[in-house]
Amino acid sequence: MPVTNTDITLRLFVDDIATIIASYDVIQVFRSTGDENGPWEAVTSLAAAAAVLLGTKHEPYKLQGLTLDVRTGGLTTHSCTFAGADPTTAAAAAAELTAALGADGIAADVGGYVRFTTADTGTDASVDITGDDAYANAGFALGAFALGTDAHVPLVAGVQDYELVDHNGAVAYWYRTRYYDTATAAASPYSVPLPADPVYVLPSTDIITGTCRLADLSGRALANQRVIVSNLFEPSIRSGWGVFGMTREVRTDDDGYAELKLVRGSLVEVMFENTSIRRRLRVPTAGAEFDFLDFTLADDEFGIAVPVLKIAAPHSP
């Protein structure tokens, strides 16, 4: 994952905080730069951590007169022109690099390899190799990078709303979370992966999660079923915001499960791709989640289209 310097704000809502906090004390956050299937990288750790980048070439090095450009924080580029005589040790190369980094980080000899560590910590900490002619000889690839991590999000009794900003995220990334206990290492199942969304402006109390669990005719989980939810544009205001978004969509995972966050009280139409099912329903205003197939939420029940077949043409006696 490259250094993006892009802030993605994650809104985390814990419905039954009393039950969750009885077993766990933090929320772990993970990101995928590919799709909802991963691979997944940690956004959080036990404590905020620096970006650490380790070279792949063992000493000695031939670096005299060559220059290595290293960027920290995605903003500041440090150029180091090596003056030491060849062959150069990892310790000698690291000393020159540390001088070039100044207050932004240090380089060290780790078993004969050069390692960079940023002074900054958290998801805004980064180090990457940006160029010139010494990177290969020093054991780095052009564009090699490392990112820091934030501390896990601590759970607080009675608090349901939490927020984490990934300072090196992207709108194309996916995120998932789980609850974790730092004392026992107990962990909950992972949440359903969700794409990076624009920042939520409504409080979590105005949001509810719509879900569905789908199976095929053989009773197996129906994966990759596309579910489309459209706003029917009934005048709606929540917490001072007019609700005018047009459509949202999601696909079921390998277990046939999908979920989507919606504004409470909205009038929507739910469609299941490649089926005749179209449901007009009122999003509930109470509870933490609801089922898109709950017949009590709509007048149309399941909205299944029933074909009218003409068996025989009518005739007069």
- What is the N-to-C succession of helices and strands? EHEEEEEEHEEEEEEEEEEEEEEEEEE
Query: How many discrete structural domains?
Result: 3
Return residue spans where pLDDT drops below 50 for at least 5 consecutive residues.
301-317
> How widely separated are the two ends?
79 Å
Which assembly state applies to the chains in this document?
single chain
Measured as a percent range, the helix fraction is: under 10%
Kindly provide the name of the CATH class of the largest domain.
Mainly Beta
Shape: elongated
What characterizes the major β-sheet?
5 strands, antiparallel
Strand content: 35-45%
Specify Rg, calculated over alpha carbons.
Answer: 27 Å
Please state the average pLDDT score.
88
CATH architecture assignment of the largest domain:
Sandwich
Output the CATH topology of the largest domain.
Immunoglobulin-like
Secondary structure tally: strands:
25
- SS class: mainly beta
Number of distinct helices: 2
